[in-house]
Design goal:
324 residues; alpha+beta; 13 helices; 12 strands; 30% helix
Length: 324
Protein backbone atom coordinates (compact mmCIF):
# COMPACT_ATOMS: atom_id res chain seq x y z
CA UNK A 1 0.00 0.00 0.00
CA UNK A 2 1.27 3.44 -0.91
CA UNK A 3 1.38 6.28 1.67
CA UNK A 4 -1.66 8.56 1.88
CA UNK A 5 -3.09 11.37 4.02
CA UNK A 6 -6.21 10.51 6.05
CA UNK A 7 -8.73 12.93 7.58
CA UNK A 8 -12.32 12.90 8.85
CA UNK A 9 -15.02 15.29 7.67
CA UNK A 10 -17.30 16.52 10.48
CA UNK A 11 -19.62 18.42 8.14
CA UNK A 12 -20.94 18.07 4.62
CA UNK A 13 -19.28 21.31 3.52
CA UNK A 14 -15.91 20.07 4.82
CA UNK A 15 -16.32 16.78 2.93
CA UNK A 16 -17.30 18.52 -0.31
CA UNK A 17 -14.41 20.97 -0.02
CA UNK A 18 -11.99 18.07 0.42
CA UNK A 19 -13.55 16.26 -2.56
CA UNK A 20 -13.25 19.39 -4.71
CA UNK A 21 -9.57 19.53 -3.73
CA UNK A 22 -8.96 15.99 -5.01
CA UNK A 23 -9.49 13.83 -1.91
CA UNK A 24 -11.21 10.44 -2.26
CA UNK A 25 -14.24 9.64 -0.11
CA UNK A 26 -14.23 6.55 2.09
CA UNK A 27 -17.07 5.05 4.19
CA UNK A 28 -17.02 1.27 4.71
CA UNK A 29 -13.84 0.90 2.67
CA UNK A 30 -14.61 -2.72 1.81
CA UNK A 31 -13.60 -2.28 -1.84
CA UNK A 32 -11.26 0.69 -1.78
CA UNK A 33 -8.95 -0.62 0.97
CA UNK A 34 -8.66 -3.98 -0.82
CA UNK A 35 -7.64 -2.22 -4.01
CA UNK A 36 -5.16 -0.01 -2.16
CA UNK A 37 -3.51 -3.09 -0.65
CA UNK A 38 -3.17 -4.55 -4.14
CA UNK A 39 -1.83 -1.16 -5.36
CA UNK A 40 -4.57 -1.01 -7.99
CA UNK A 41 -5.81 2.19 -6.31
CA UNK A 42 -3.23 4.74 -5.12
CA UNK A 43 -5.11 7.75 -3.67
CA UNK A 44 -2.91 10.37 -2.04
CA UNK A 45 -5.73 11.69 0.21
CA UNK A 46 -8.72 9.99 1.83
CA UNK A 47 -11.52 11.76 3.68
CA UNK A 48 -13.72 9.68 6.00
CA UNK A 49 -17.38 10.70 5.51
CA UNK A 50 -18.95 8.54 8.22
CA UNK A 51 -19.73 11.66 10.28
CA UNK A 52 -22.22 12.93 7.67
CA UNK A 53 -26.01 12.61 8.22
CA UNK A 54 -26.79 10.23 5.35
CA UNK A 55 -28.16 7.36 7.44
CA UNK A 56 -31.97 7.51 7.10
CA UNK A 57 -34.22 4.85 5.58
CA UNK A 58 -37.67 6.24 4.72
CA UNK A 59 -40.59 4.31 3.22
CA UNK A 60 -43.56 6.46 2.17
CA UNK A 61 -46.30 6.63 -0.46
CA UNK A 62 -43.69 8.14 -2.80
CA UNK A 63 -41.28 5.27 -2.45
CA UNK A 64 -38.09 4.30 -0.63
CA UNK A 65 -35.31 6.77 0.17
CA UNK A 66 -32.00 5.44 1.47
CA UNK A 67 -29.11 7.54 2.77
CA UNK A 68 -25.76 6.78 1.16
CA UNK A 69 -24.16 5.80 4.50
CA UNK A 70 -26.80 3.20 5.40
CA UNK A 71 -25.08 -0.17 5.76
CA UNK A 72 -26.12 -3.07 3.54
CA UNK A 73 -27.20 -5.10 6.57
CA UNK A 74 -29.40 -2.27 7.90
CA UNK A 75 -31.28 -1.90 4.63
CA UNK A 76 -31.67 -5.65 4.13
CA UNK A 77 -33.13 -6.06 7.64
CA UNK A 78 -35.55 -3.11 7.50
CA UNK A 79 -39.07 -4.58 7.87
CA UNK A 80 -40.72 -2.21 5.36
CA UNK A 81 -38.01 -2.89 2.78
CA UNK A 82 -38.44 -6.64 3.21
CA UNK A 83 -42.21 -6.42 2.72
CA UNK A 84 -42.49 -3.61 0.14
CA UNK A 85 -39.21 -4.07 -1.78
CA UNK A 86 -38.14 -7.72 -1.33
CA UNK A 87 -35.96 -7.63 -4.45
CA UNK A 88 -33.72 -5.07 -2.74
CA UNK A 89 -33.44 -7.01 0.53
CA UNK A 90 -32.66 -10.23 -1.35
CA UNK A 91 -30.02 -8.64 -3.59
CA UNK A 92 -28.25 -7.27 -0.52
CA UNK A 93 -28.29 -10.58 1.35
CA UNK A 94 -26.96 -12.42 -1.69
CA UNK A 95 -24.39 -9.72 -2.41
CA UNK A 96 -21.98 -10.37 0.44
CA UNK A 97 -21.45 -12.28 3.68
CA UNK A 98 -22.59 -10.84 7.02
CA UNK A 99 -19.35 -9.15 8.08
CA UNK A 100 -19.08 -7.35 4.76
CA UNK A 101 -22.74 -6.29 4.85
CA UNK A 102 -22.20 -4.78 8.30
CA UNK A 103 -19.46 -2.50 6.98
CA UNK A 104 -20.32 -1.75 3.35
CA UNK A 105 -22.40 1.37 2.65
CA UNK A 106 -25.09 1.73 0.00
CA UNK A 107 -23.20 4.54 -1.72
CA UNK A 108 -20.02 2.49 -1.71
CA UNK A 109 -21.83 -0.50 -3.15
CA UNK A 110 -22.64 1.57 -6.24
CA UNK A 111 -18.98 2.57 -6.52
CA UNK A 112 -17.60 -0.98 -6.59
CA UNK A 113 -14.95 -1.64 -9.19
CA UNK A 114 -14.75 -4.74 -11.43
CA UNK A 115 -13.80 -8.15 -10.07
CA UNK A 116 -11.95 -8.98 -13.31
CA UNK A 117 -8.65 -10.72 -12.36
CA UNK A 118 -6.77 -8.74 -15.00
CA UNK A 119 -8.03 -5.48 -13.50
CA UNK A 120 -6.74 -6.53 -10.07
CA UNK A 121 -3.38 -7.79 -11.34
CA UNK A 122 -1.20 -4.73 -11.83
CA UNK A 123 1.07 -6.71 -14.17
CA UNK A 124 -1.75 -7.41 -16.67
CA UNK A 125 -2.95 -5.15 -19.46
CA UNK A 126 -6.19 -3.44 -18.41
CA UNK A 127 -7.75 -0.36 -19.98
CA UNK A 128 -9.83 0.31 -16.88
CA UNK A 129 -6.83 0.44 -14.58
CA UNK A 130 -4.37 1.94 -17.07
CA UNK A 131 -6.09 3.47 -20.14
CA UNK A 132 -4.48 2.55 -23.43
CA UNK A 133 -2.64 -0.56 -22.22
CA UNK A 134 -5.07 -3.10 -23.73
CA UNK A 135 -7.36 -5.80 -22.34
CA UNK A 136 -5.88 -9.21 -21.51
CA UNK A 137 -9.36 -10.55 -20.71
CA UNK A 138 -10.58 -10.44 -24.33
CA UNK A 139 -8.33 -13.32 -25.39
CA UNK A 140 -7.46 -14.64 -21.93
CA UNK A 141 -9.42 -16.45 -19.22
CA UNK A 142 -12.80 -14.88 -19.91
CA UNK A 143 -15.23 -17.39 -18.39
CA UNK A 144 -16.59 -14.78 -15.95
CA UNK A 145 -16.63 -11.87 -18.38
CA UNK A 146 -19.55 -10.11 -20.06
CA UNK A 147 -21.61 -11.26 -23.04
CA UNK A 148 -23.58 -7.99 -23.15
CA UNK A 149 -22.35 -4.39 -23.32
CA UNK A 150 -18.67 -5.15 -23.85
CA UNK A 151 -16.25 -3.49 -26.25
CA UNK A 152 -12.82 -4.26 -27.71
CA UNK A 153 -11.43 -2.26 -24.79
CA UNK A 154 -13.16 -4.01 -21.86
CA UNK A 155 -15.41 -6.98 -21.15
CA UNK A 156 -15.48 -6.91 -17.34
CA UNK A 157 -18.84 -7.59 -15.66
CA UNK A 158 -20.40 -5.17 -13.21
CA UNK A 159 -20.06 -6.58 -9.68
CA UNK A 160 -23.02 -5.10 -7.74
CA UNK A 161 -26.15 -7.18 -7.06
CA UNK A 162 -27.96 -4.24 -5.47
CA UNK A 163 -27.47 -2.15 -8.61
CA UNK A 164 -29.33 -4.76 -10.67
CA UNK A 165 -32.36 -4.49 -8.38
CA UNK A 166 -32.19 -0.68 -8.43
CA UNK A 167 -32.06 -0.58 -12.23
CA UNK A 168 -35.11 -2.85 -12.41
CA UNK A 169 -37.04 -0.51 -10.08
CA UNK A 170 -36.08 2.73 -11.90
CA UNK A 171 -34.16 4.08 -8.90
CA UNK A 172 -32.47 7.47 -8.94
CA UNK A 173 -29.14 8.35 -7.33
CA UNK A 174 -28.77 11.80 -5.75
CA UNK A 175 -25.40 13.58 -5.92
CA UNK A 176 -23.94 16.70 -4.34
CA UNK A 177 -20.80 18.76 -4.89
CA UNK A 178 -19.65 22.31 -4.26
CA UNK A 179 -21.31 23.14 -7.62
CA UNK A 180 -24.78 21.97 -6.51
CA UNK A 181 -26.97 18.86 -6.63
CA UNK A 182 -27.95 16.39 -9.35
CA UNK A 183 -30.29 13.43 -9.68
CA UNK A 184 -29.30 10.66 -12.14
CA UNK A 185 -31.30 7.50 -12.94
CA UNK A 186 -29.27 4.52 -11.75
CA UNK A 187 -29.58 3.01 -15.24
CA UNK A 188 -27.68 6.03 -16.60
CA UNK A 189 -25.28 6.31 -13.66
CA UNK A 190 -23.32 3.26 -14.81
CA UNK A 191 -21.41 3.78 -18.07
CA UNK A 192 -20.72 1.12 -20.68
CA UNK A 193 -16.98 0.78 -21.37
CA UNK A 194 -16.95 1.81 -25.04
CA UNK A 195 -13.66 3.59 -25.76
CA UNK A 196 -13.34 4.90 -22.20
CA UNK A 197 -13.65 1.93 -19.83
CA UNK A 198 -11.88 3.81 -17.04
CA UNK A 199 -15.02 5.98 -16.70
CA UNK A 200 -17.35 3.64 -14.82
CA UNK A 201 -19.92 6.03 -13.33
CA UNK A 202 -21.50 9.33 -14.35
CA UNK A 203 -19.75 11.08 -11.50
CA UNK A 204 -18.14 14.52 -11.76
CA UNK A 205 -14.97 15.47 -9.84
CA UNK A 206 -15.72 15.95 -6.15
CA UNK A 207 -19.32 14.67 -6.35
CA UNK A 208 -20.64 12.70 -3.42
CA UNK A 209 -23.54 10.24 -3.40
CA UNK A 210 -26.03 11.43 -0.77
CA UNK A 211 -29.03 9.10 -1.21
CA UNK A 212 -30.90 6.72 -3.49
CA UNK A 213 -34.63 6.98 -4.22
CA UNK A 214 -36.77 4.07 -5.41
CA UNK A 215 -40.21 5.13 -6.75
CA UNK A 216 -43.28 3.38 -5.33
CA UNK A 217 -45.41 1.24 -7.62
CA UNK A 218 -47.78 -1.72 -7.73
CA UNK A 219 -44.93 -4.00 -8.87
CA UNK A 220 -42.52 -3.59 -5.95
CA UNK A 221 -44.14 -6.06 -3.53
CA UNK A 222 -44.17 -8.88 -6.08
CA UNK A 223 -40.46 -8.84 -6.70
CA UNK A 224 -37.36 -10.90 -6.04
CA UNK A 225 -33.71 -11.53 -6.90
CA UNK A 226 -32.08 -14.73 -8.11
CA UNK A 227 -28.30 -15.17 -8.19
CA UNK A 228 -26.63 -18.12 -9.92
CA UNK A 229 -22.98 -18.66 -8.99
CA UNK A 230 -20.29 -21.32 -8.71
CA UNK A 231 -20.68 -21.59 -4.93
CA UNK A 232 -23.25 -20.34 -2.44
CA UNK A 233 -21.01 -18.03 -0.39
CA UNK A 234 -18.61 -15.19 -1.18
CA UNK A 235 -18.92 -15.51 -4.93
CA UNK A 236 -19.98 -13.16 -7.69
CA UNK A 237 -22.80 -13.96 -10.10
CA UNK A 238 -22.48 -15.99 -13.26
CA UNK A 239 -25.97 -14.70 -13.98
CA UNK A 240 -28.62 -12.98 -11.87
CA UNK A 241 -32.12 -11.65 -12.40
CA UNK A 242 -34.18 -8.99 -10.64
CA UNK A 243 -37.87 -9.31 -11.49
CA UNK A 244 -40.86 -7.19 -10.39
CA UNK A 245 -44.36 -7.86 -11.70
CA UNK A 246 -47.71 -6.10 -11.42
CA UNK A 247 -50.35 -8.79 -11.94
CA UNK A 248 -54.03 -7.86 -11.61
CA UNK A 249 -57.10 -9.64 -12.93
CA UNK A 250 -54.95 -12.53 -14.22
CA UNK A 251 -53.14 -10.12 -16.55
CA UNK A 252 -49.60 -8.79 -16.29
CA UNK A 253 -50.05 -5.01 -16.10
CA UNK A 254 -46.39 -4.13 -15.58
CA UNK A 255 -43.02 -5.87 -15.68
CA UNK A 256 -39.50 -4.86 -14.65
CA UNK A 257 -36.60 -7.19 -15.45
CA UNK A 258 -32.85 -6.54 -15.09
CA UNK A 259 -29.91 -8.94 -15.05
CA UNK A 260 -26.39 -9.05 -13.66
CA UNK A 261 -23.24 -11.14 -13.97
CA UNK A 262 -23.50 -11.12 -17.77
CA UNK A 263 -23.00 -7.47 -18.72
CA UNK A 264 -20.60 -4.60 -18.21
CA UNK A 265 -23.35 -2.64 -16.41
CA UNK A 266 -26.60 -3.71 -14.69
CA UNK A 267 -28.64 -4.69 -17.74
CA UNK A 268 -32.33 -3.91 -18.26
CA UNK A 269 -34.30 -6.23 -20.57
CA UNK A 270 -37.01 -4.12 -22.30
CA UNK A 271 -37.80 -6.81 -24.90
CA UNK A 272 -38.55 -9.29 -22.16
CA UNK A 273 -40.71 -6.72 -20.38
CA UNK A 274 -42.70 -5.94 -23.54
CA UNK A 275 -43.34 -9.64 -24.06
CA UNK A 276 -44.80 -9.88 -20.57
CA UNK A 277 -47.08 -6.83 -20.39
CA UNK A 278 -50.65 -7.70 -21.39
CA UNK A 279 -50.06 -11.45 -21.29
CA UNK A 280 -51.53 -13.96 -18.86
CA UNK A 281 -49.15 -15.38 -16.24
CA UNK A 282 -48.05 -18.93 -16.96
CA UNK A 283 -45.33 -21.27 -18.15
CA UNK A 284 -45.73 -20.40 -21.84
CA UNK A 285 -45.50 -16.66 -21.14
CA UNK A 286 -42.39 -17.02 -18.98
CA UNK A 287 -40.68 -19.23 -21.56
CA UNK A 288 -41.51 -16.99 -24.50
CA UNK A 289 -40.39 -13.84 -22.69
CA UNK A 290 -37.18 -15.37 -21.33
CA UNK A 291 -36.19 -16.50 -24.83
CA UNK A 292 -35.50 -12.81 -25.56
CA UNK A 293 -33.24 -12.28 -22.54
CA UNK A 294 -29.98 -12.79 -24.42
CA UNK A 295 -30.86 -10.76 -27.53
CA UNK A 296 -27.69 -9.06 -28.73
CA UNK A 297 -25.37 -11.20 -26.59
CA UNK A 298 -21.91 -12.00 -27.95
CA UNK A 299 -19.86 -14.76 -26.38
CA UNK A 300 -16.10 -14.78 -25.88
CA UNK A 301 -14.01 -17.96 -26.19
CA UNK A 302 -14.79 -19.15 -22.66
CA UNK A 303 -18.25 -17.90 -21.72
CA UNK A 304 -20.76 -19.07 -24.36
CA UNK A 305 -22.52 -20.99 -21.58
CA UNK A 306 -23.66 -17.67 -20.11
CA UNK A 307 -26.09 -17.04 -22.96
CA UNK A 308 -28.14 -20.15 -22.21
CA UNK A 309 -27.68 -19.65 -18.48
CA UNK A 310 -29.04 -16.10 -18.75
CA UNK A 311 -32.21 -17.28 -20.47
CA UNK A 312 -32.76 -20.02 -17.89
CA UNK A 313 -32.11 -17.66 -14.97
CA UNK A 314 -34.70 -15.18 -16.21
CA UNK A 315 -37.27 -17.90 -16.86
CA UNK A 316 -36.78 -19.41 -13.41
CA UNK A 317 -37.18 -16.06 -11.68
CA UNK A 318 -40.26 -15.15 -13.72
CA UNK A 319 -41.76 -18.46 -12.63
CA UNK A 320 -40.84 -17.83 -9.00
CA UNK A 321 -42.30 -14.32 -8.90
CA UNK A 322 -45.24 -14.81 -11.27
CA UNK A 323 -46.22 -18.41 -10.53
CA UNK A 324 -47.31 -21.05 -13.02
Amino acid sequence: MYPFVFSKAATESAALAAGADGARYIAGGTTLVDLMRETVERPSRLVDINGLPYRDITVSSEGLRVGALVRMSELAAHPDVRSHYPVIAQSLELGAFAQLRNMASIGGNLMQRPRCPYFRDVYSACNRRSPGTGCDAVDGDNRMQAVLGGSAHCVATHPSDLAVALVALDAVVHLRSTAGTRAVPVAEFFLRPGNTPHREQDLRPGELITSVHVPAGPHTRRSGYLKVRDRQSYEFALASAAVALDIRGSVIRGARVAVGGVATVPWRLPRVERALVGARPGRATWTEAAARAADGARALSGNAFKIRLLERTVRRQLTTIGGL
